[in-house]
Amino acid sequence: MTYIRRIIDDEIDELFASLAAISIEGPKAVGKTETALQRASTVRRLDDPLQASLIRADPARVTVGEPPILIDEWQRVPATWDAVRRAVDADASPGRFIITGSASPDSPPTHSGAGRIVRLRLRPMTLVERGLGEPSVSLRELLAGAQPDLRGETALGLAEYAEEVVASGFPAIRTLDPRARRAQLDSYLARVVDKDVQEVGQPVRRPDTLRRWMTAYGAATSTTASLESIRDAATGGEADKPARSTVIQYRDALQRLWLLDPVPAWIPSRNYFSRLAHPDKHQLADPALAASLLGVGAEALLEGREGTVALPRDGTLLGHLFESLVTQCVRVYAQAAEAEVRHLRTKGGRHEIDIVVERRDGRVLALEVKLTGDVTDDDVRHLAWARERVGRDLLDAIVVTTGPAAYRRRDGIGVVPAALLGP
User: Does 111 lie in the same domain as 40?
Assistant: First the structure.
């Protein structure tokens, strides 16, 4: 199968010219190994029991070979992390090691690797990487603060975005026909419940409870619902609920598997706002996982069906999953631009900004995600409020839509279809 170049490839090539070791992290099936193989001369596959047993007996063996050396699924033998760190201490020549991992190990390494091993997150394929058209609006350019002209058109509409939500950004899954794709996603989730969570050290005494909690978390996509409300939704009002400590352990285990990708709240360095709320916004690694857990396909989403678990939310399930898809894309583009993705919500929810992209100097780009092709004044009211409050530190304000064209409104707020936004 022909390798599809990812946005992270440019990051790796740039960093690997100066750094000795890079760790590529992300959930299983996201494409870490294939990306690393594009530049590896020696490969150590620690998901191979024979190779793992040999390396376990002598972890330093993992550093022997022609560089770059790929150490795949390093968490299977956590001692390899410290072996690489020591090797870099001895010789920090660029381009020596690429490490991949689909989980944080149960027993973490004795040293974080700070200063020796640089971590990069690989997320599922963006709309750009899926080859759905040429982007005409660059996130990096928006972050430069020049407020460029916005142009470009796309043929993608609501139905196509609904299909992309359920198609998945996992490279080997999205190319399958719909029935095989559904089967693969179901199998992926079943393995998480039956095996993967336990492999990171979290016992699962009631797999059905974990599955229901994951489903409720999927229903909470793009919300700041409390863990208590997610737990209530998972148990359907039953008196016999899992303990809060158990729910937290589920959450932590799924984060160690890179399956949860919550968006933290933006806490500005300057006093622009009063009474900000600080909960994370819930996101799974891929909105297709949420759709699979909830048992909804593209047609059901377009019909407004909620799936097997419903949580109170503003708007439709499709709207929240579309926001999740856009957030996933923006996080990839922001990482390439050395920026961070946050969200903003005031206490009581009177004002909120779906995505806040923050530069290193604290200046920000505000993005609202709307399931519409026709942007009204009501759709931009939160952006207008943020522009007034943040002032010159707001680089630009953009509504990301399902519409056909990119343009600027008379008030200066940009409108960009999701398919036209790129790195």
Answer: yes
Query: What does the alpha-carbon distance between residue 263 and residue 269 come to, in Å, rounded to a whole number?
Result: 18
Gap between the Cα atoms of 54 and 72, Å rounded: 14
Dist. CA 212–CA 288, nearest whole Å: 16
* 253-272 pLDDT, tens digit each: 999 999 999 999 998 888 88
Please state, in angstroms and as integers, the Cα–Cα distance from residue 241 to each residue in 84, 206, 250, 300, following that order: 44, 12, 14, 30
Q: Does the pLDDT at position 388 exceed 80?
A: yes
Cβ contacts of 48 within 8 Å, gap of 6 or more: none
Do residues 393 and 249 both lie within one domain? Answer: yes
- List of residues 6+ apart from 144 with CB closer than 8 A: 395
For residue 402, what are the domain limits? 137-422
The β-bridge relationship of strands 394-401 and 364-369 is: parallel
Q: Strand ranges (DSSP E) for 124-209?
A: 137-138
Cα 344 to Cα 366: distance, rounded to the nearest angstrom: 9
pLDDT of 389 reads 92
Same domain, 196 and 319: yes
Residues 6+ apart with CB under 8 A from 86: 60
Q: What is the pLDDT of residues 78-124, one digit of tens each?
A: 999 999 999 999 999 999 999 999 998 766 665 556 678 999 999 99
Work out the end-to-end distance of the chain between its first and last CA atoms, rounded to an integer number of angstroms.
25
pLDDT at 107: 63
Of 46 and 239, the structure prediction assigns the larger pLDDT to: 46
Non-local (6+) Cβ contacts of 158 within 8 A are 302, 371, 373, 402
Let me know whether 39 and 149 are in one domain: no
106 and 149 in a single domain? The answer is: no
Give a yes or no: residue 126 inside a domain.
Answer: no
Which residues partner with 97 through β-bridges? Answer: 21, 69
Q: How many domains does the chain have?
A: 2
Phi/psi of residue 178, nearest 5 degrees: -55, -40
CATH number (domain holding residue 76):
3.40.50.300
In a domain, 127, yes or no: no
Q: 200 to each of 187, 193, 367, how far by Cα in Å?
A: 19, 12, 35
Count of residues for the chain?
Answer: 423
